[in-house]
Amino acid sequence: MIDKEVIVIGAGLAGSEAAWQVANSGVPVKLVEMRPYKSTPAHHTSEFGELVCSNSFGALSSDRAAGLLQKELRSFNSLIVQTADKFAVPAGGALAVDRSKFSNALTKTLSEHPLIEIKRFEQLDLPSRENITILATGPLTADELFNKIQDFTGIDACHFFDAASPIIYGDSIDHEIVFKASRYDKGDPAYLNCPMNKNEYLDLRNELIEGEQANLKDFEKESANFFEACLPIEEIARRGVDTMRYGPLKSIGLWDPKWGDLFDRENRLKKRPHAIVQLRKEDLEGKLLNMVGFQTNLKWSEQKRIFRMIPGLEKAEFVRFGVMHRNTFLESPKLLKPTLQFMKRENLFAAGQITGTEGYAAATAGGLLAGINASLLALGKKPVSFPAESMIGSLMNFISNRNQILSNQKKNKFQPMPASFGLVPELTYKINDKKLRYKAYQERSTVALNSFKKLLNACFQKDRLLIKIN
User: Is residue 376 part of a domain?
Assistant: First the structure.
């Protein structure tokens, strides 16, 4: 163990991962979390790594961008992904978790680590320049601290509005109407499905459009900057009559066996519902269900009234209503290196959604890199960058000054980005088949990361990957 300490501010996904990576390098960590003394508009508990939106980390398969990112994180002993795997719930081809067990386990693991000191208070300013610090306060960073960050950077913050879906009790739905199925019967039936005919769908759409909105601080409907990957369901409804049924309410490939043979085309076209609302398990037993794609800013009373119009949910009881909140992030390409160090202060790192990455696995990736590099700095070593051929490296390059993609964005304005194969460098040879091309990206990433691991282990003079959670 060494005398230097790393301060991690924020115990969300990025902060939790960063603290774990630092401590497993033999460096003491002070992990600062303001909850429960001060909460946010989206959090409901004081547990670490609370998932405030969906309970899904995205596709599992490594021929998908999110799946490749998860695979890379597993190979680097990610606490977040190991814990997510441990508390996974059925979700078709996605990694979804029991969010309560997930965050409870994270809190317990970090609290019991001998090199991690937990401090529960609101950080009101940046620690002194002598401290190695990781900012992982997320998109809901408290105003006072964010004002100090703005003073430090000299650059105004960016923001968008994000929303979460309601959660309902599983025993309050009508199983005579709602049926279990996965799309095209692939894998176990991981979703519960509420079928709607055309009139039911149109009535729901009209009510969503006309429903009374909750008032939000700093929120003006006519000028709201929504995050496109997490639009409120009422905003999707406004975009066109069929927008919902070609989006989150798509019915194609979902089938109740009592309707006959799914693969009988004539029967399928005749009996297929006009739209389907899907429910995903929040826990293994299915006691709690998430309304997939139903992020919303409707008033709670309106949510109860309107969502009970959905067939099978007429008597639904709500554990948690949907909410909307303002997310703030840094204009990272002007501020950060690919190592996640601030250009103005090399012992200050940023990680997670505050940097402009989007999604749980992407936030975790930032925490992993910041934790590794803060450890190296504490040990008197030079910070590293992940290979550009990896999904982690591509994401970090996107948010750093090395990013070249910004020139193609509208008005050259930086916007949050999830894992995407569009970020990775092109192959040196052409593959027209998309699946084969994505497989080639995966294989190239594996080769690049194997070499990178050798470099990293040489820096630490030990195999850090042997340290696992219990």
Answer: yes
